[in-house]
Amino acid sequence: MEWNPTQFFNGSNDLPAPFALVVLNQPINERAFGVLNENACFTICADGGANRFYDMMKSQEKESTHLPNAIIGDLDSISPTVRTHYEDLGVPVIEDSDQYSTDFTKCLKYLRDHTAQIIATARSTPEAVEWGNRLEILILGGLGGRVDQAFSQIHHLYTVTQQQRAEREVAGDLYLISEESVTFILQPGRNTIHTPRANRPGGAAGPQDCLLEENIGIVPLSGPARITTRGFEWDVEDWRTEIGGQLSTSNHIRADVVEVTSGVSVLFTLELAKRFKRER
């Protein structure tokens, strides 16, 4: 399985695979958003995420010109002022009162149900004719606040990725963009991750044009895992890792393409380049 998370951070230089942005009710990494927004096909806010989006745009005096494509959730968190503002501007505000799903998973369901329409609209640009029918999903969230909310985001990233494994030909990959990292769930088997322009010894990219810092982490979530790695400073072979035992954290990228082979799904996280990190 191949992963190419840095393609979304190339700005207007290279057109990435079609992707949607999901804005959660968490602090937004504005630096990352500024780049991702250049090529996003669709932006959807999860309930109170609309408040975060509105505040970000209002700070730039763009709250009436830069709009999300849709807002969905049980609508218990969006402020009345923000809801009225976007409704008056024609943004669909969709109430979904299903108590067995979160605002986040409601957004994912909406994107799945409307993937063909979203991609068809995006294909109106000449550069997009070679796009496939998969819609990658980038989740703008935060892992630096409440610990329980951070675990909730990791939990949903893991469970939804597992649910979509059987449908990967039509369901795009999920990436969590937090304050300083891009995180995703590697699948059982061999995973090839493209890591060009990492700020690493011997790399071609310098601090001003790099996409990634050198640090990575591999964390098993559902129990022990045995992993084999290639392309890192400290590679391992059939190495047992588990929470409560040995963990692969703060390893370093040493190649433009790295590999992780695992018998079970594991979390993989990359440190974003400094220029994409959220300002504190």
From TrEMBL:
Domain Thiamin pyrophosphokinase thiamin-binding: start-end pairs: 189-266
Nucleotide-binding recorded as keyword:
yes
Question: What's in the keyword line of the UniProt record?
Answer: ATP-binding, Kinase, Nucleotide-binding, Transferase
The cross-references to Pfam families, in alphabetical order and at most eight, read: TPK_B1_binding, TPK_catalytic
Q: Read off the SMART domains from this record.
A: TPK_B1_binding
What would you give as a GO molecular function for this chain, any one?
ATP binding
Q: What is its EC number?
A: 2.7.6.2
Please give the catalytic activity noted in the UniProt record.
Answer: thiamine + ATP = thiamine diphosphate + AMP + H(+)
* Coiled-coil zones: none
Q: In which pathway does it act?
A: Cofactor biosynthesis; thiamine diphosphate biosynthesis; thiamine diphosphate from thiamine: step 1/1
Q: Which GO terms describe its biological process?
A: thiamine diphosphate biosynthetic process; thiamine metabolic process
Highest taxon above the source species: Eukaryota
| Gene3D superfamilies on file | Thiamin pyrophosphokinase, catalytic domain (3.40.50.10240)
What NCBIfam families does the entry give?
A: thi_PPkinase
Family designation: Belongs to the thiamine pyrophosphokinase family.
Write the protein's name.
Answer: Thiamine pyrophosphokinase
Q: Species name for this entry? A: Aspergillus wentii DTO 134E9
